[in-house]
User: What shape does this take?
Amino acid sequence: MVLFLVSSAWAATVAGRVSDPEGAPIPGAQVIAQGPEAGVSKTAVTREDGSFSLDPLPAGVYTLTVRRAGFAELVQQNVPVGENGDSVQLNLRLRSNREQAVSMGMEELNPNIFIVKLDTNEIVRQLSTRGANTQLVTEFRPQENSFGAPYGYPLRRVELARPGGLLRSFHGSLYETHQNSSLNARSFFTVGDLLPSRRNDYGASVGGPLVRDKLSTDFAWSQTRDSGYVNGNIQVPLLEERIPRSADPATNALIARLLTAYPNQLPNLPSVAARQLNTNAPRDVRSTGFSTRLDYRPRTADQVAFEQRYYDVTEDPFELVIGQNPMTFLRPQSYHLTHSHTFSPRTVSRLGLNYDRLAVSLDVTDRYKNLLAPLGLATVPEITFGRNGDLTGLGPGTNYPRRRIENRFHVAPEITQARGDHTLAFGFLVSRYQINDLQSENSRGVFDYTRNFGRSAVENFLLGRPSSFKINLGDFYRGFRNWEQAVYFQDRIRLRPNLTISLGMRYEMMTAPVEVNNLTPITYRTDANNFAPHFGFAWNPRGGKTAIRGGYGVSFGALFPLLYQRARFNPPAVKVISVDNNPSLVNPLQGLDLSSSGNERSGLNALSPDLVVPYTHLYTLSVERELPAGLFFRVGYMGSRTMKLPWEVITNRAEPDPDPRRNITATINERRPDPRYLEIDTVTNGATAYYDSLNVSVEKRLSRTMTWSARYVFSKVMDTGDTTFADIGTGRHKSMMPYDIVGDLKGVSQFDTPQALTLTYRFQLPAFGGQGVLAHALGGWRFLGTYSYRTGVPYMLHTGSDAPGFGNVDGVGQDRPHILNPSILGKGINHPDTSQSILRREYFDPNIPVGGRGNLGFDTFRLDGTNNLNFAVEREFALRKGGDQLPALQFRSEFFNFLNHPQFDTYAPHWGNEIFGKITNTVNRGRIIQFLLRVRF
Assistant: This one.
């Protein structure tokens, strides 16, 4: 909100401008100011330039509601209007509906990259492929938790239903969007024509008064059907590698069945990689969603808003290799109720009640479950060859099946009062979390094949010689409960007509979770000393067109369930078994005593008793000015320091033996110093993250036919433990050394994007007088789009094996080699034609000392960046003559990745793999064309 204070009459005028996300003016939007006294309600309609002006209002605290068909409703609460007649200027932006995302620079991810829509997986995927879409935040408010907000992902913000104005008449819409593979372009690695695939997204909405001046409703319903073939790239066995090579018939039979998981096709892209196959597999995604909103005004001093949302997703995944991805059933739903009461013209209260529920089921597909059925085996283990391995691994991942029921309850009262030059706000939040979860990490077992025993990973697979076998045994189902509380206070003070400051404090407490059946003790205590001060100011030096803003705030994160639930994988309830001494493929647990009274060693997942919630310092300073010709300029700095991020400390590693002959993978467990356990993983606080950015933006506004904006961000993000705000666990990677994690992992963060440029535009052809052939054919067409450029994110490089000559043989993978050619550090590995000329094998030495480390830093290379242009053309046709805008028909054609520019995926990072250094996939799809038809009435 941009606030300018100028002199006015006894009553204040609320004025401003309404625009879309690109800064284009929105004419015809309804702006309603309500409260605080009975009958105090003013309405205005925005002009052609998006501006509006409400009649003078008495002093008080107001709620502004902005509505326009095709845009999400905006409710701005607690807008203070002073007693001395000062005017309030608001610049408001309406969020576009989902089908308008093309103008926001969104680009469709390649569907052959499967993302499990749980926890923060989608956020991490976006960050690790495109970097952070940082936003300049000009104010930090104690009413909101801003942890993650600078990156566009406020992880702990609680959204309440916002009371708004009653609908005076019925309105609605019908829409259909359609994608068809016959209109789309092939991606970079696609062999042959695109096989059929279609996406249809359709829905309807209707809203209006149920009881005049008392009750109104809005209802929306939508369905998505996304079916057809997904094109992707996998690594498959060569012709001569389709026959098992073990001397044991039982082992050969098992390998032969596992080989049937690969398609009966030979590699068809040898120029990319010897085993690369570009192929297709069917996928079917079905989703249904609906939402209901009720606005109720029983008395003039009271407003009630109720919002309900329901979403149901079923995904039968693509399987380029049988078992590649899990079956997905996802069902989130929410019920939000808010009551607002006006005690006086200056005092308003609000009570919000939220209930959110999530039901998730992720399971191995039946095709993979039955893979070994001919051999009488009901369970199929996971088979891994490392990240971007010489063969595509078998199975969807080590943590399936997985089932979760999550219930969240929130109670949030708040009271706001205007006292002269002060606007006070006080409130608190009480949250209750219930999570019932089956998290079956390694419950099916996992065989890991690496370069070992003097052979490649593929040779070891065909011989039935895995490097290790891991399995967790026991009851994995748990129910955890915990509370979170927050109390906050804010005072917004107008010191002078051109200077406003804000002071606030927020206190948070997070209780340690409790397992309802006492199966898993949580060793850390309730974190109850989290005080978060906030300060901000807005200064208009000469009462003109320049404003200077600054702010500081502290926000606390959380200890998320994904982190503390790892404590379930501990003896005696659960045994974490690791077999590193040449495990048998047929019977990997032979010779082990797995009875409840057995003394077999187990891994240990510990939580530090001193574990606390991470927190971040946020600070910002910006200067903005309105320039001639409708230009708006802003330059600002924003930074953060995030402290006490959790990381993983791995101890009880295998130590070097004085006898060099014993420093092999077969003796790893014998060389661990604590004979009671295998690997000990302890989560503790220790990582720190640093973020600094310069933001420069220019917007062309107040134009009927042309608007545009340009935004440039220069930034740097670093951390000391490969843990970021979005890692609700402990990050992606492990330190090579247990006692110098900072020295080993400190570097740029996984989503560091030093430079980002975003250009948006919107141009509308003139009406050509409104008559004639030219006016009917060309008048009113709008052209809009976004160009996005971002530098690539960092990426790592590993030896690919823990075996002698490739790793430090301590039982923990992800070792890094020595760098022999430092001149390549920091280079972009961004094209398959050049990647291996940069990552030449002779530039690295994987022969690191036993128990030691290589000298290559962490995340020292960069991936391909984003270079994307989206484009759309649209027009709205009136369905009847006259001045009324409704009913109307909207047509829109959208072009994602209009220039068909590939953004290449990661290179193969493991030195020991034959595929090392090669790029075999793209992050994005080829050009996508989508059509939209919408009828508004």
